Amino acid sequence: MNILNYADAFFGDSAHWQDYDGIPVRLGEHVQYTLMALGIAAAIGLPVGLLTGHTGRGGNVLALIATSGRALPSFGLMVLMFILLGLGMAPVMIPLVVLAVPPILVTTNEAMRSLDPAPVDAARGMGMGEAQVLFRVELPTALPLILSGLRSAAIQIVSTATIAAYVSFGGLGRYIVDGLYQRDYEKVVGGATLVAGLAVATLLVFWAVARLAVSRGVRRPG
Amino acid sequence: MIRIDSVTKRYPDGTVAVDRLSLEIPDRSITVLVGPSGCGKTTTLRMINRMVEPSEGTILLDGVDIQQQPVNTLRRSMGYVIQNAGLFQHRTILDNIATVPRLLGWGKEKSRARARELMERVGLDGSLAKRYPYQLSGGQQQRVGVARALAADPPVLLMDEPFSAVDPVVRKGLQDELLRIQEELGKTIVFVTHDIDEAVKLGTMVAVMRTGGHLAQFAPPAELLTDPADAFVEDFLGADRGIRRLSFFSSAGLDLLIGPIVAVDASAEQIAAAGRAGAPYLLVVDTDGRPVGWGDPAELAAGAIDTDGLLSHGRPFTAGGDSLRAALDCAVLSPTGWAVAVDGEGRATGVVSQTSIGEAIRGAHAGRATAGTAQKVAP
To answer: What are the domain boundaries of chain A?
Structure first.
């Protein structure tokens, strides 16, 4: 039996489409964890990245925080949090947020600092206030890069959120963890395929968002 | 009037960018700040709209200290044009131009209508309205920059090296366009450049600044070229300032000879008569009177005129319309040493020798010494 047969068997089994352990439920949970972690990470990363980028201060501190954030192993962090905080959503969310903040923060800061200074100077010289400069000039121009930071954060969360299953939460990780435990490789392959599929879907969502939100003037061909 | 009153800009590290500068910028004219890099010309400009705050001294706008009003109100009342235009990449050309009207709270439609009006004024095709800045050439972008600065019809226009990043041909076009727009609108323009030729061409008044933020001389361009205040200004004006100064003298008074002009179908007697008119060569013109080329009187008299055998007449100058500089240039470049004068339609109105232009130059200098200021002639 090869992987395709496993996948075929997994998705062909109608039992996998029903009840609390069915694909729709697990997929829904996974999307929910992802959105929650991405939301929290963006709420931290975007304002800090925008402000430090706008003022041009604190870039070195950010780089340090980002590097240490990336160095932390998500699984280890989750187990540690589980021991410290006990069963709950927090031990799952903390490692995912720690994973997602650095790409958002660093890319946003980088996007802001690499902006052409001339339009920003022109904006101030024409009498825009600082908030207007930030939201009407800097942010729309930096948006493609900022979205790419959010996108890589989202992809990393989608693939890493599988660890939630180790501390008895749901999500697509459930199939992988249970499958390995039960030596049910159909489940393992099926779960992994779903995670990969969700990652691709995430890419598509970001592509669509970019089409809608980014001005044609800064969306260069290619 | 903008009055800069003993203004100093000192940075925290001790660098003095502008040192006790005083300057009165006249209304409805172009005042150029020119000087080498580090002379404080851009800092001076940026202090007028408070992009840089002076350390000492005051700047008065129509008698009122510019510190009196909120900084963004001040800035919205002054057009601001910078090098490379600094257009907003995410906005269409139309919305770029409509920026300040929108900031002032004009409605969207009114702002856009105004923006369309300005596109026309600065010579931009209306079809560019929906384009984005990256789709425009450097020269077009700079036109948008000027239109954007003019959008809310501010009385003052601040221009910081606006044309220095475009190639010379486009730059000349933009300069001519600015002079044309200024003729129509009569703004108070403060213009920063490091290019003395640009300063002389555009400026009603030119402030030459030297390193360290000192004012070296403040004078109309003709006076600057005639009478540089010191060795620094003289050096900065460059080697050919005597020639450039001729731009300010009209060619109207030149002693044009019409004798040496012969039509292409002239008779042998006419050619012989023209040969005695005092020029070593004869200018052959076509049946409409337009110059064709120079010919030797003896050869021309020998038979029917062969237009292929003539010497090039070079680029003619417009008598009265062009300056003495243009006339001299024509004579210097002409293979015969004689310049050809034409009227507005390109018909030859006379020829003039280098010697005769030289006399006119001496006469003009003598006249200048007594008459004072002269008007700038087609620079």
So the answer is: 3-213
pLDDT at B243: 86
pLDDT in tens, A177-215: 999 999 998 999 999 999 999 999 999 999 999 999 999
Residue B295, by phi and psi: left (phi above 0), alpha (psi -120 to 50) or beta? Answer: beta
The more confident residue out of B304 and B199 is B199
Residue B307 near residue B292, CB atoms below 8 Å = yes
**pLDDT class of B129 with cuts at 50, 70, 90:** very high
Q: For B10-69, how does the pLDDT look when each residue is reduced to its tens digit (9 = 90+)?
A: 999 999 999 999 999 999 999 999 999 989 999 999 999 999 999 999 999 999 999 999
B132: contact with A, CB 8 A cutoff: yes
Domains of chain B: 2-240 (3.40.50.300), 261-363 (3.10.580.10)
State the pTM of this model: 0.83
Cβ-count burial B302-322 (b if 16+ within 10 Å, e if not) = eeebeeeebeebbebbbbbbb
Q: Among 1.10.3720.10, 3.40.50.300, 1.10.10.10, 3.40.50.2300, name the CATH number for the domain at A3-213.
A: 1.10.3720.10
The residue to which tokens 């000039």 are assigned:
A137
Contacts of B350 (CB under 8 A, 6+ apart): B256, B257, B258, B261, B319, B341
Q: Which pLDDT does position A65 carry in this prediction?
A: 81
Say which residue the tokens 């009478």 belong to: B227
CA distances from A50 to A41, A46, A64, B294 (A): 14, 6, 17, 71
Q: What pLDDT sits at residue B268?
A: 80
Is this complex scored with an ipTM above 0.90? no
Cβ separation A127–B74 shorter than 8 A:
yes
Which phi and psi angles does B363 have, rounded to 5°?
Answer: -65, -40
A128, A129, A217: residue with CB nearest B89: A217
Q: How far apart are CA B158 and CA B2, in angstroms?
A: 12
CA nearest neighbour of B192 among B173, B169, B209 = B209
Q: How far apart are CA A31 and CA A37, in angstroms?
A: 10
Side chain identity at B60, as an amino acid letter?
Answer: L
Q: How far is CA A101 from CA A38, A106, A111, A198, B252, in A?
A: 8, 8, 15, 20, 75
CA distance B212 to chain A (A): 24
Q: What is the DSSP string of A105-170?
A: HHHHHHHHHTS-HHHHHHHHHTT--HHHIIIIIIHHHHHHHHHHHHHHHHHHHHHHGGGGGGGT--
Lookup: tokens for A161 = 């959120």
Q: What is the pLDDT of residue B379?
A: 44
Helix (H), strand (E) at residue B193? strand B188-193
For B87, the closest chain A residue by CA position comes to A119
Tokens of B251: 């060619």
Please give the Cα distance from A26 to A20 (Å, whole number).
8
Sequence-distant (≥ 6) Cβ neighbours of residue B351 within 8 angstroms: B256, B257, B258, B260, B261, B279, B283, B338, B339, B340, B341
Give the nearest partner residue to B75 out of A125, A214, A215, using CB atoms: A125
Quick check: A217 contacting B, CB < 8 Å? yes
Q: Position of tokens 């005769």?
A: B356
Q: Which residue has the tokens 């731009």?
A: B247
The least confident of A57-66, B24-33, B316-325 is: A57-66
Contact A129 B72 (CB under 8 A): yes
